[in-house]
Amino acid sequence: MEKIPMTRAGHTALEAELKQLKTVERPAIIEAIASARELGDLKENAEYHSAREKQGFIEGRVKELEAVIGLAEVIDPATLSGTIKFGATVTLVDEDTDEEKTWQIVGEHEANVEKGLLNIKSPIARALIGKEEGDSVEVRTPGGQKGYEVLSISFQ
To answer: Which residue intervals define the domain Transcription elongation factor GreA/GreB N-terminal in the entry (predicted)?
Structure first.
């Protein structure tokens, strides 16, 4: 199996979610199923069916998180330097609008564009890999062709 790269923060967040599911969510849903069973006929018991559906979701997420964590290769960006690579925090300026954006390139399981965490497999991240400060990058995004200039690269 192929290792899944992720930052320490991403790994810690996945472990916290797994712990929450196993220690809080799973016992709560088991209790909800038991309570719903006590209400009688299970065929017409909406609470029971809802609880069972939620249990299926929780168990699926637990399995997914265990698999991802088992294949995780934690990379500490602080030990890296040089050109843009996994873990780099990159500040770009949009060549059309002069808008500055800062992203950290992370693994797909920890990516969140709203928080500035860019999936390594995204078009922008793929275009940035190997670039240096001052380089211009043309990226084909779902919204069309975009041009960026790399202002700074840091590894935190």
So the answer is: 4-74
pLDDT at 141: 78
CA atoms of 139 and 147, how far apart (whole Å): 6
Contact predicate 71/1, CB 8 Å: yes
> What is the structure's pLDDT at 88?
92
- Helices (H), ranges, 38-87: 46-71
- What's the CA gap between 143 and 133, in Å, rounded? 25
* CB atoms closer than 10 angstroms to residue 105: 25
For the chain, counts of helices (H) and of strands (E): 4, 7
- Give the pLDDT confidence score for residue 117 in this predicted structure: 94
Q: Which residues of the chain have pLDDT under 50?
A: none
**Closest among 125, 151, 127 to 137, alpha carbons compared:** 127
